[in-house]
Amino acid sequence: MKRFNIKVAIIAIILTMVLGMGGCKPAGEAEQTYEKSIHIYCGAGMKKPFLEIAKIYEEEAKVKVDVTVGNAAEIKSQITESQDGDIWICGGQSELKSLEEKDMVGEVISLVKHVPVVAISTDISGQIQSPQDLTNPDLNVVVGDAESTPIGKIANKFFKKQGIEGKVNIIANTCSSPVMIEALQTNEANVAIMFKENAIDKEGVEILDMPEINDHTMKVQAVGLSTSQNVEETTEFMKWIVTEKPKEIWANYGYESLDQ
């Protein structure tokens, strides 16, 4: 099996994200203007549901929602360097430590579960029954970048707790779940450690029933930032984000509620 061309895949995903955020409007359609605005950072893996949530809030509250998408390391760096932003939709509470140390974190609200899973190519269905089976040298495994993503940190903790650290054939560390899915679908890899919602209903991909990794479940959180210049708008959004409509959108994308 040839090695997964991770750099090419990442570049393709980044271009897709950039182009997808262009917000092109049909010719002649006027741009909606708002007197109030709010700047929200969002983890890349949560882009699709949150952009839908942000659009609905704009329409209901008549507040412009500017969304910046990136991985955790990029977002933390941008918040720290720019001293700008109102809220961060964060994929894991462990990512907040460096900002907390700088007194940049205000109110934190947990929204939904962020459940890690072992996803595999359906070509190897039935071959993995336990974490120890992941040490098979014939398997090609992709994981998240532990320096920049919550799922990368989870993979490392999972391997260490199961006593298989250093025994898994990891062919790539990537910051992007779409890259992992592409690797599984093209048989460049046959195992990936990723969040459940990113693997659901993907052609050629199967989610294993492995409780050992579910023990590392995290929470998606709305994090109020001390850099906020829009205190009133931030407060109102933090109240709204826990109402039924946003919960329905998270559920539509495969996220589990906190009481599940």
CATH architecture identity of the largest domain: 3-Layer(aba) Sandwich
What multimeric state do the chains show? single chain
Name of the CATH first level of the largest domain: Alpha Beta
Spans with pLDDT under 50 lasting ≥5 residues? 10-29
Rg on CA atoms, Å = 19 Å
Largest beta-sheet details = 5 strands, mixed
Supply the number of helical segments.
9
Q: What's the rounded overall pLDDT mean? A: 88
Looking across the biggest beta sheet, what order are the strands in?
2-1-3-10-4
What is the H/E string? HEHEHEHEEEHEHEEHEHH
The percent range for helix content is 25-40%
Distance N terminus to C terminus?
A: 39 Å
Structural class: alpha/beta
Basic shape: elongated
At the fold tier of CATH, the topology name of the largest domain is D-Maltodextrin-Binding Protein, domain 2
SS elements, strand count: 10
Q: What is the CATH superfamily of the largest domain?
A: Periplasmic binding protein-like II
Explain this structure.
With 260 residues, the protein is of the alpha/beta class. The protein has 2 domains: 113 residues, D-Maltodextrin-Binding Protein, domain 2; 99 residues, D-Maltodextrin-Binding Protein, domain 2 (3-Layer(aba) Sandwich), CATH 3.40.190.10. Helix content is 35%, strand content 23%. The chain has 9 helices and 10 strands. The strands form 2 sheets. It has a 5-stranded mixed sheet with strand order 2-1-3-10-4. Helix 2 packs antiparallel against helix 9. The longest helix has 15 residues.
